[in-house]
Amino acid sequence: MNRVMLVIVSIFVVFAFAGISVSAEKAKEMKMAAGQVKAIDTKTGVLTLGNDKSGDSTYIISDKTVVRANNKNTGTIADIKVGDIAALVYYDADGKNVIRSITVLSPAAASPSAKKP
Questions:
Q1: What is the pLDDT of residues 53-81, one digit of tens each?
Q2: 82 near 42, Cβ under 8 Å?
């Protein structure tokens, strides 16, 4: 249950930062997704996110994607690992889901036992 709450909180954090956007992206409809990173190809910038309700979906990480990883305000694609929990804001560009911003938590950070003293 705590893991779900962390993902929900992460989504709100992503939306808080999603307001910072390039004018061309403002006209695009922003969507959100959350789940576990199933695969990532750092060379091509393709991320596969798994979700119990909607299954696996593929997203594109562009050079404008804002990455926040493990409680750092800045991050890179290299900070994203298979198994991480991610909340992202994305838009459709020519039939591809392009990530505007992504907030990533490692499985240990998302685990309820990680919060206990």
A1: 878 999 999 999 999 987 777 788 888 89
A2: no
Query: 34 near 10, Cβ under 8 Å?
Result: yes
Domain range list for the chain: 2-112
Instruction: Go through 50-68 and write b for each residue having 16 or more CB atoms within 10 A of its CB, e for each that does not.
Output: eeeeeeeeebebeeebbbb
Instruction: Please give the structure tokens belonging to residue 78.
Output: 């290299």
- Give the C-alpha separation, 53 to 17, whole Å: 25
Q: Which CATH number is 2-112's, of 2.40.50.320, 1.10.287.110, 3.40.190.10, 2.40.40.10?
A: 2.40.50.320
As a whole number of Å, the end-to-end CA separation of the chain is: 18
104 and 79 in contact (C-beta within 8 Å)? Answer: yes
pLDDT tens digits, 89-104: 999 998 999 999 999 9
